[in-house]
Design brief:
Elements (H helix, E strand, L loop, with lengths): L1 H22 L20 H10 L1 H11 L6 H21 L7 H16 L3 E3 L2 H10 L12 H9 L4 H6 L3 H14 L5 H15 L3 H24 L3 H14 L4 H17 L1 H7 L9 E3 L3
Antiparallel strand pairs: 1-2
The protein binds ligand LTSJ6FE6 and adenine.
Adenine binds next to helix 1 and helix 13.
Pfam families: CitG (PF01874)
Catalytic activity: 3'-dephospho-CoA + ATP = 2'-(5''-triphospho-alpha-D-ribosyl)-3'-dephospho-CoA + adenine
InterPro entries: CitG
Length: 289
């Protein structure tokens, strides 16, 4: 019973983080409450339906890993649950790719938290997720993806490597940026700052696939200008620029959702603010269930 309740809570928080991400507005090139960004086939209701459809996937990933050390068998079962989750996602979105990256990144974090029975330690949650991501899964389909094509063309790491390296862009950029920004800005602005810092630093295979190296560099350069001159009206202008060039930072959106997920489930935000400082390296919490 305890296992079920903890895993349900993990899945609840994972879905909530996906909803929190899509509702955050204005996001450059991405679906939000104002527009569908650089996407003809997406809408906010599609994104939200997709998020809810993944509850069972995240729950199963957590149940699989509960209080267990990762093994190749667990990694293969994790992959099977993820591929099934992708199928369910494509069924509710009429074949739009809404959350493929999130199934992977947030799914690994769900597993990592369940492995410790709901305890979230930093940076252990990321290294635990990486341990599972580094195990082989012989059943991964060999088909080419947008990510694998651009990784091959440009020789850059993508979603797989981000997880295998213990989410360096969350650890180094979005998490500390959010926690620091939240002390001087509104929560909405802090989340948007975390998204911008991800766009500036990540090699987002969605941006590369859409716009090539020029598109990726343009997106990074313009996001960087905004970090030093942050305002909601400038963000709306950035949104227009990305839409005009049909650029969408989908990988950064996924990593923002993953960041919000670990912040919310660990309770780090509440305690960080209470103590008036960022406590990234000392925080730990078993959440109530
Ligand atoms: C390891 C996998 C994640 C597969 O990775 P791969 O790179 O091979 O595959 P992609 O299909 O390209 O998916 C990767 C998605 O990860 C997000 N992402 C991109 N860059 C990064 C990064 N640097 N770090 C972290 N995450 C990143 C991104 O997801 C978001 O964008 C999606 C929209 O993408 P796309 O369809 O390309 O968008 P469009 O431009 O709109 O496409 P077109 O219409 O133009 O064609 C959206 O879903 C967001 O989530 C990347 O898309 C893992 O999935 C895997 O192992 N796959 C094998 C099958 C499997 O076993 N699955 C179960 C795993 S649990
Ligand atoms: N808000 C969003 N818009 C478009 N693609 C996304 N992938 C993940 N979140 C997204």
């Amino acid at each position: 019973m305890k296992q079920h309740l903890i895993c349900k809570r993990i899945a609840d928080e994972a879905v909530a983080a996906l909803i929190e991400e899509v509702q955050l507005t204005p996001k450059p090139g991405l679906v939000d409450t104002e527009n569908n960004g650089a996407h003809n086939d997406l809408s906010i209701s599609k994104m939200q339906n997709s998020a809810h459809s993944l509850h069972n996937t995240f729950y199963q990933m957590a149940m699989l890993s509960f209080n267990r050390q990762p093994t190749v068998e667990i990694r293969e079962q994790f992959g099977a649950i993820g591929r099934n989750g992708e199928k369910e996602m494509f069924a509710v979105t009429e074949n739009s790719n809404t959350h493929k990256g999130a199934i992977w990144s947030i799914g690994l974090l769900c597993s990592a938290i369940a492995r410790r029975q709901g305890e979230v330690l930093f940076p252990q949650v990321f290294t635990d997720a990486a341990e599972l991501a580094n195990l082989p899964d012989q059943y991964i389909p060999k088909s080419k993806t947008n990510g694998s094509k651009v990784k091959e063309n440009y020789g850059i790491p993508g979603a797989r490597e981000e997880a295998q390296q213990a989410f360096p862009h969350i650890q180094k950029y979005s998490l500390p940026t959010f926690l620091q920004a939240a002390q001087i800005m509104s929560l909405r602005e802090a989340k948007l700052s975390a998204l911008l810092v991800l766009i500036v630093n990540l090699n987002d295979t969605c941006l590369l696939h859409r716009g090539g190296l020029d598109g990726l560099m343009f997106a990074k350069r313009e996001a960087k200008k905004l970090l030093s001159n942050f305002s909601i009206s400038n963000l709306k202008k950035l949104d227009d620029m990305y839409i005009k060039r049909w650029l969408s930072p989908g990988g950064s959106a996924d990593l923002l959702a993953a960041t919000l997920f670990v912040i919310n489930i660990s309770g780090i935000m509440k305690r960080g603010v209470q103590h008036g400082k960022v406590e990234l390296h000392v925080s730990s919490k078993s959440f109530d269930y």
